[in-house]
Amino acid sequence: MPFDDLSKSLVVLDQDSTLISTVELSLSSWLVASLVPGLGRRPQKKLDPKPEGLLSLLLQWRDAAVKAGHPISRIVVAFEAGRDGFWLARFLRSRGIEAHVIHASSIPVKREHRRAKSDRLDNLLLMRALLGWLRGEEAHCSMVAVPTSEEEDAKRPSREHEALVGARTGLVNRMKASLIRFGIRAFKPGLRKAAEALDGLRTAEGAPLPPHTLAELRRDLARLRLIRAQIKEIETQRLTRLEAAPGHGPHPMILLLAKVLGLGVETADMLVNEALSRNLRDRRAVGRYAGLTGSPDESGRKRREKGLARAGNARVRRGMVQLAWRFLMFQKDCALVRWFRDKVAAAPRRDLRKTLIVALARKLLIALWRYATQGVVPEGVIFKQAV
């Protein structure tokens, strides 16, 4: 698949035959601004948040340009990435309109302490960014790749699993905190018979738990059982899908990664659907997308590193750092792990271990990207034994 550079338009802009519009989206209304060839003004109109109304307005402006002697051969619409996601772009593209989604962080804004902000001013910023992008200006703004409905849906199980695991951890910690207030430290809410053991708990004074606290803990345990059942359901359904259609969509890549010792199906599913299945240009783009690259601060003689940029996919970044720690346990003969241990041994400071684990996570992600897309096996990696 050829790489599509979303940082600039690859189509030459003919502004006399192109209708350019930007949309400022909100829950209650949409503000649409446009550059219509042949009109001496820049029309703006506020609409109800309905795609049919937007499509009708674009066609009206196209007819106005034709009446002014400017036949329209291209209609370009752009809006900022946000809560609405990508459904509007897919709707417009299915009706022959070129729709783009602007990366929100790529739009420069004024940095005064207090600046005026309104939908009209935000729309002007969007129009300025879109015009520079259409002219092919380097690094003017970036567009977001618009996924299909199937690609968006494929991310849901992994994201729901992550949210449920976080809810489970928070619930267990809250139960432990409630018990510690009464001097009880040995109780483990994650055990199967935890609900039966509640009645036998005694405070530091030897008294049973107060009734309201006991009732709260019972409700928390019921909620914990539900969360654990939902996590199990997601994991079972994922394995069923992989076994039923191993060659469908991203499934071959997931199964390929899951063969690596220390890399489970959950991590493989997250990596493939969030990062590795994207059409990334090179290894630098892979590291940037995961937010595992540095953020240097240089000015004259001043040169310092401010740490991770953290501008990429936070899920991939967290998952890769966790996977890097697991690789130290399960892949001791891997070349990347040996590199990490040599660096740690030669480091003058002990606290560089956490810094180097991020570097290992970046190198590991690039190695897995090459393995999943090009078939290059990382040096020294051990695979799981076939059952």
> Termini distance?
35 Å
Report the radius of gyration as a whole number of Å: 27 Å
- Overall form: globular
> What is the fold-level CATH name, i.e. the topology of the largest domain?
Nucleotidyltransferase, domain 5
By CATH reckoning, the class of the largest domain would read Alpha Beta
The CATH architecture designation of the largest domain is 2-Layer Sandwich
Q: Report the β-strand fraction as a percent range.
A: 5-15%
What is the percent of helical residues?
Answer: 40-55%
Number of strands: 8
What is the SS-derived class?
A: alpha/beta
How are the strands of the biggest sheet laid out side by side? 3-2-1-4-5-6
Task: Explain what the structure shows.
This protein is α/β, with parallel strands linked by helices. The chain folds into three domains: 132 residues, Nucleotidyltransferase, domain 5 (2-Layer Sandwich), CATH 3.30.420; 95 residues; 123 residues, no CATH class. 49% of the residues lie in helices and 12% in strands. The chain contains twelve helices and eight strands. Strands 3-2-1-4-5-6 form a six-stranded mixed beta sheet, sandwiched between helices. Strands 7-8 form a two-stranded antiparallel ribbon. β1 and β2 form a beta hairpin. The chain is globular, with a radius of gyration of 27 Å.
